[in-house]
Amino acid sequence: MFTSLFSDKDKTVADHQLYEAQLDKESYDINSMAKLTLGSAAEHITVTVEIEKDGKIIMTQLVELNNSRKTIIIPVLASDVGGFAVHTSFAAFNEFKSQSFNVSVPYPKTDLNIETTTFRDKLQPGQDETWSFKIKGPKGDKVSAELLASMYDTSLDEFRTHNWNFNPINNPVYHGRLGKNSRQSFGNTNFRVFNNFYTDVTYPYQGYDELNWFGFYFGNNYRYLSKSKRLSSPEAVAMVSDSAELEEVVTVGYGEAAENKTALNNLNGAVSGLNITSGSGQPGSDSSIILRGTGSITGNSEPLFIINGNIATETQFRSIEASDILEYKILKAEEGTALYGEKGKNGVIIITTNQDLSDLQKVKIRKNLNETAFFFPQLQTDKEGNVSFNFTAPEALTKWKLQLLAHTKTLESAVTKLETVTQKELMVIPNAPRFLREGDEITISTKIANLTDNELSGVAQLILTDAVTGKSIDTELSNSNNTSNFIVDAKGNTQVSWSLNIPKNIQAVQYKVIAKAGDFSDGEQNALPVLSNRMLVTETLPMWIRSNQTKTFTLDKLKNNTSTTLSHHKLTLEMTSNPAWYAVQALPYLMEYPYECNEQTFSRYYANALAQHIVKSNPKIEAVFNQWKSTDALLSNLEKNQELKSLLIQETPWLRDAESETEQKNESRYYST
């Protein structure tokens, strides 16, 4: 590596420098001058300078160098946008030298500038939002532009990154096409001898006897085969006492109960000083809670009371009606200190009441979990270049990617990306699968996030319903004990989970995960299709019969089937004098495609156009539709919930064949509109 130092005043060249050439700038504006400086320390050197534009040599000039430097001025014209080339060459001392330069002439700037006027990078789910932007021209001037805006869940980029590239103006950069070669004018003949000899040497592999670890040995790590069994009896949980335990407290285990009676009976006696009495002798009537005082030489040793997620006093604990206790949990000193610090050193009693369960039902549930927020293709700016749009923030708790594309009529453009997050102070984030399968034993876990500056304790609940009928199916899915207490640190996360068994004959499960801690709450609702382990097979037999004709038909596959797992679903006989009726009944499938892509949009258009043609050409069919339309039939839950309907069509389309006749009538009534 070497460095050359130049002087504008000195016209000589460094000693022993045969040739040098350089431009004074890297790029040039229109109507400027490009300066090409040539120099040589030799005498009587003639350099040929050629200027190439659009693939043609438009000027040739001979420059005489005699131990000197000379500068050539080249005007840059408007037609030179994109650049041009300059070639230099000479021959001296039995040697040929050439050098070329691509002169850069940038195109006028066409980039717009999108400035943020109103934008929030943190949103509350479901809130109404207005964002504003200002679009300026390449020189900061006002422009009239059109804006395309869209926003989607950033996690989709994990599958495939989605970015907008908009380069409507083709601005090619010019590269010189002229090349010079001295060929053999001053060349030398080269001679090489290739006599390399390669030898491949190997040595035999020596094997040794090894123990068969049967899959329990992996490298230098040890693996142990173990089997654990969870005991269902609370008395089987062993507890280790410590020096700071409650006086006369005898803990029988971490017991939880789903019914009030069980909770009361287990709580009574779990702490030796805690008694629940009933005046009438019947559980839940005139009940009272009595906690015998605790004593200690070192001072107060009463436990910490947590009622419905909030720290309570002993007086508040005593005032609870025994019949209001839904669930309880007792933590001994070590675990209580780990979760609640110094306050829990004497143990913790956590109580969940029926009132807290009632408060959970009032929590606002997030239902719109779409992965796309909005798509606005034609937003127009005002005279000042301002543009704004309104939308409702998505209810999914995630990071969102906003993309903006602005352009003018002259194709000046700009693309901008921004990110925002939907979040709450307390958030439930279920880790639910995409679908369920009959016979599954699955654990639904939920992360509870706390964005506040304080530790929160509260109650979480999982509610399961049949998405089609709307009936509760907690019992059918072994979710009888559907509440769980939680404690989450400030700015931290915790996890709760429920174990479920998926039964048969359920098409879809709608779940609600709700959490409440003090004044903070959150909930999420979604539907999961249930896939069967069996396949629905439909055998059809067309029967064509003319008037006054008798025929016998046999369903051979049904009659001769020897499958041991076959389970018959139903046998249907349909009769019509007009075969067009079958086409009409098949059209709703095309009309219900959920997406707006070209293929499905055309399918919906085709189905509606064909239905309209059939109705108009068959007055009797139209009369039937009008009769159905006049019937005041109630819509099913499936018809009311369009998102669930789309989900079932996508995941289990064969289940739609089992709809009732009333359901099919409700679908077909639109043909006459």
Automatic annotation (TrEMBL):
PANTHER family: ALPHA-2-MACROGLOBULIN HOMOLOG, UBIQUITIN DOMAIN-CONTAINING PROTEIN. GO terms for molecular function: endopeptidase inhibitor activity. Residues 372-462 form the Alpha-2-macroglobulin domain. It comes from the Bacteria. Gene3D superfamilies: 1.50.10.20, TonB-dependent receptor, plug domain. The lineage of its organism: Bacteria, Pseudomonadati, Bacteroidota, Flavobacteriia, Flavobacteriales. This is TonB-dependent receptor. Residues 19-159 form the Alpha-2-macroglobulin bait region domain. Pfam families: A2M, Plug.
